[in-house]
Specification:
Radius of gyration of chain B: 13 Å
Number of helices of chain A: 9
Number of domains of chain A: 1
Number of helices of chain B: 0
Largest sheet of chain B: 5 strands, mixed
Strand content of chain B: over 45%
Helix content of chain B: under 10%
Structural class of chain B: mainly beta
CATH architecture of chain B: Sandwich
Oligomer: heterodimer
Distance between the termini of chain A: 59 Å
CATH topology of chain B: Immunoglobulin-like
Largest sheet of chain A: none
Strand content of chain A: under 5%
Distance between the termini of chain B: 26 Å
Number of strands of chain A: 0
Strand order of the largest sheet of chain B: 3-9-8-5-6
Chain lengths: 273, 100
């Protein structure tokens, strides 16, 4: 039971962090009424996960056709795009929030923001959602004593439940920060998550033979921290840590930060005009 | 590079290894490869439940649905023993790639 709990819990860590930060962000700018966009995004992801986990639906045939690795890479890249947009957006917004009334321009931007929030909640949950649904469904399908199967499924569902609780904890925790520290902390965290997802996408493309690893493995740091351990799972989920990364994944990970900072600086400069 | 014209492309790797997941175990549980050459690892899931092939030593993590086969591209490796396991059944699905 613990084994299945740990498996599903690890799948939900990143999504919990993303959803928690998004909810806290809305609360910070006084837009709690927009929570539902996050919930709809997450719920849509759960439904989509079910569709893509199905035995032979249009969705699974699509995955079969383009290949699992490419499919995973595309989901991750979509998440990186929206996450980056969110970070730049939040940074821009941090300067504007002082209880001002929304002008017409703000309202248009607000609609775009809602789309971004909903999409981010969606990809955050969908990323591991398909895997989690497949895993849980597999647990149900297996033969064996009913008591055993029930315990395993209960453990698996428990892992998901704790993930939801974690999202709430992140929401509460980050909510306690003052405005400026909040945007700094969550901005940095989201950047690290995006960098991790980007290098994961590259990792998928390497596994599928589309990209060369350059040097693999670049190092072996499993003696220091292994992805399988509890702390290792958290560090891997939040920061994209790998014990045997390839050079290309590392380059992409490290290269992501200056690119975003350049974009942030450019936005800042444009606003100052 | 992935090849879009089957039969008209040069082989990506000279070594092709095959693994099958059956009864939540890898068959065979030990595969061998030559060092210094790229490896194409084909894993088929013959079970009725999904499995995730995972190896931190090989830096690969791949979900494999029931009845599907995935092709994992591995770089040229140094001699050694590289452990892998099935994340959904880690107690029974274990194996290693021995490179020599």
């Amino acid at each position: 039971m613990l084994a299945t709990f740990v498996i599903t819990w690890r799948e939900t860590i990143e999504a919990a962090l993303i959803v928690g930060i998004l909810l806290a962000y809305l609360r910070k700018i006084g837009h709690q009424h927009e929570f539902r966009y996050i919930f709809v995004g997450a719920a849509a992801a759960v439904i989509a996960s079910g569709l893509f986990a199905g035995a032979s639906s249009l969705a699974t045939r699509l995955v079969e056709w383009i290949g699992e690795e490419l499919f995973d890479a595309l989901i991750l890249l979509a998440a990186v795009a929206v996450l980056t947009y969110m970070v730049v957006w939040m940074h821009h917004n941090a300067r504007e929030i002082k209880g001002e009334l929304l002008s017409k321009a703000d309202q248009a931007l607000a609609r775009r923001r809602l789309w971004a929030l909903g999409t981010l909640a969606f990809v955050g949950v969908f990323r591991e959602g398909v895997e989690t649904v497949l895993f849980l469904w597999g647990l149900l399908l297996q033969a064996g004593p009913v008591a055993n199967v029930t315990l395993q499924v209960a453990g698996g569902l428990g892992g998901v439940a704790v993930g939801v609780v974690m999202a709430w904890l992140f929401f509460k925790g980050f909510g306690h920060l003052d405005l400026r520290p909040f945007f700094k902390v969550t901005g940095v965290l989201l950047l690290f998550i995006a960098a991790g997802m980007l290098s994961s996408a590259v990792g998928r493309l390497i596994a599928g033979g589309w990209l060369p690893p350059l040097i693999e493995p670049l190092w072996d740091s499993s003696w220091l921290l292994n992805e399988r351990s509890l702390i290792g799972s958290l560090v891997a989920g939040f920061f994209g840590y790998r014990s045997h990364p390839s050079l290309l994944e590392l380059l992409v990970y490290v290269g992501y930060f200056p690119l975003v900072l350049f974009w942030l600086r450019k936005e800042h400069h444009d606003l100052a005009q | 590079m992935a090849c879009w014209l089957p039969g008209a492309c040069p082989a990506w790797a000279d070594q092709e290894l095959a693994l099958t997941i059956k009864h939540h175990q890898f068959e065979p549980s030990e595969v061998r490869a030559r060092a210094g050459e790229k490896i194409l690892l084909k894993v088929t899931n013959a079970d009725s439940t999904p499995e995730e092939f995972e190896s931190s030593a090989l830096n690969r993590e791949q979900l494999i649905r029931s009845g599907h086969t995935v092709t994992i591209h591995l770089p040229a490796l140094k001699p050694g023993s590289y452990e892998f396991y099935g994340e959904f059944n880690p107690k029974t699905a274990t194996g290693r790639l021995i490179v020599e």
